[in-house]
Design brief:
- By secondary structure, this protein is mainly alpha-helical.
- It contains five helices and no strands.
- It has helices at residues 15-34, 37-44, 49-55, 58-76, 89-94.
- Helix 1 (15-34) runs antiparallel to helix 2 (37-44) and helix 1 (15-34) packs across helix 4.
- It is elongated.
- The model has no long low-confidence stretch (mean pLDDT 86).
């Protein structure tokens, strides 16, 4: 993996959380088309059927991975709001 975000200790997570953590890494490295569900499940220590069980299909799984990654990014660094400095909205957007 690219090493930008370390994998959490997967042993402490349930299957769904392990899949999402592994999915973040594999999708980030390979993109949707080239990321294999079997690769993600192997990294997560899960049966490949777990993706369909928890998410329905690869597309919905990908959507959940993206939503989770976005939520975590916003938690680390909240997006600026235009209301934070109504006198300089362009400056807020640049920030």
């Amino acid at each position: 993996m690219d090493g930008s975000t370390p994998l959490p200790d997967l042993a402490t997570l349930d299957t769904k959380q392990r899949l999402i953590a592994a999915g973040i890494h594999v999708f980030a490295e390979h993109g949707f088309a080239d990321a294999g569900v079997r690769t993600i499940c192997s990294l997560a220590g899960a049966n490949p059927a777990a993706v369909n069980y928890h998410f329905g299909d690869k597309s919905r799984f990908y959507a959940e991975v993206l939503a989770t990654a976005h939520r975590r990014a916003v938690e680390r660094r909240p997006m600026p709001r235009l209301a934070d400095d109504p006198e300089d909205p362009e400056g807020v957007l640049r920030a």
